[in-house]
Amino acid sequence: xxxxxxxxxxxxxxxxxxxxxxxxxxxxxxxxxxxxxxVPVDLATRLEPVLFSAHPRAWCLVVDHGGELIGYxxxxxxxxxxxxxxxxxxxxxxxxxxxxxxxxxxALLNAVKxxxxxxxxxxxxxxxxxxxxxxxxxxxxxxxxxxxxxxxxLPTRPAENLPRxxxxxxxx
Length: 172
Prior knowledge:
Elements (H helix, E strand, L loop, with lengths): L5 E2 L2 E5 L5 H14 L9 H10 L6 E7 L2 E13 L4 E11 L8 H15 L5 E2 L7 H9 L26 H4 L1
Helix pairs in contact: 1-2
């Protein structure tokens, strides 16, 4: 599945269950960077069945840089009614600040693109905050097309029943 993922000092590889604590820390850093709500305290536990069950709902690739995870991408298969075809939704793509500009983001994006093609998906979709001009430039350089939309979120249960979240400081 993964090809040409080795770069000086590291490799992109599928995540393992042993990576979950580090993935949760990366997710917390990513959420803080995007000015989003903090991730749930038990994120690693909640991700385990999603990523590592017999029939995973999503997949995760990580950048392993000499034993330290410095980036990740998560994605899932989705269905487009308008196209009547499967596509891959790139949920997250994040590289820690000290390693941005080293090519890991492009390598992750290409690895997800290769996985999408191998699974029969016709295309990928994702979003980024409109204020994140660096990410927008990055995606344009990768020849992705921007499609204007407004993203909505609607809770399906009262807030008091939602899992408790923790701030970034608790993960570090």
